[in-house]
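Hi all, long-time lurker, first post. I run a small reading group and we've been trying to get comfortable going from sequence to structure in the token notation. Rather than ask abstract questions, I figured I'd post a concrete chain and ask someone more experienced to write out its structure so we can walk through it together at our next meeting. Sequence below, copied exactly:
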Amino acid sequence: MRTPPVIAVALAALAAPAAAQEFVVDRHVVADFFQGPIIASGRVVGLGGAYVGVAEGAEGHLANPAAFAVRAAPFAHDWFDWDVTLSTLNVSRDEQIDVGQGGQQSFDDARFAQAGFNLKFGEHGFGIQVRTQDYDRTLTVLGRPETTIVVRQTYFGLGYGLHVRGGWWVGGLLYGGSAELLIGADDAAQVIGGGLLFGGLYAPPGSRWRLGATLRSGVVGQEVDSTPDPAAVPAGLEVPDAVAVPWEIGLGASYVFGPRGGNVRPTFGRGARPTPPAGRRYVLLAADLVLTGPAPEGAVGPGGLFGEDERPSGRYVSPSLRVGAESEVWADVLVLRAGSYFEPDRYAAFDGRVHATAGVDLHLGELIWDWEVGAVVDWAPAYLNWGLGLGFWY
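-- Answer (accepted) --
Happy to help. Here is the structure in token form:
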């Protein structure tokens, strides 16, 4: 999901140092909101975001909504199945953290939490995805007391997936959310928005490879429920009257080596169970290409809302290449993964920074269900993100 309009307002406030400038609310400003760093479940981040061509489990709802119906191999022959995932991410406190590649500190702290849940009945899958994001930064402006700016986003999505026939799976996600901009203890602005995400996966039974594709519609949000009181806002902030969330297309592929095998033909409980695989060990390789569309003409990034960076933002389609590898290095105990992705710069074509990611899952054993706990890290110049997760072992 791309963050609703008010997030861009707040990130602009977080991105720029305080300065003695005029507060403006009546000039036409369009903000290009582009979330470059990957914010997702631990498995997706650990694979460098390369999950469009994997699309498996509750971790994959936002990467490819076909995952609402796709069955993991151990459960492909059950009529009923379900899955759940919980994960948290935290961008470490560091004066040099830069989320928008504007060359400046973006915020003091950021926290993310999300949960996914799905139910599968035969060829059909239904589920929900919930996510919250908090960004905050404390500023001192023109001798006034310190002011803490907080952005709080709540997101909720409903998804449906379907096994069409053979190795074809499709899915869709309808999502909505609200976001608040708080200045000190006051609720300064709020916005509500939503969108659609579609996905498909081709996983031919008996093969070891998969191909996936996704499409997210673009949105221009213009309605903000309230306007901050100029007296309470750090000097220089311009409230945009429109925020562009660009369209996005994702293409992905994956391949599995090892005795665990590749794609199975699901029977959904309507046929005999085939012979189980010879072992659990495997190596998964995945790669995605994600294209993010341009912003409306004249749109600016966070720095432009402060008059500090008037370069047009989002003039070009922005490509992001993502690659990852995963292996169960200790059968039924430990999974390791690593990845990398290119985060494009919205101000310049074919410019950006490269991220390195890594993750681990540890099998905890059965307590009513079979659990795993995971950890993940995402590093790039002026950026460090880490998190924990909990889910089912399969």
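A couple of things your group might point at:
The chain has one domain: 5-230+237-392.
The helical segments are 5-15, 42-46.
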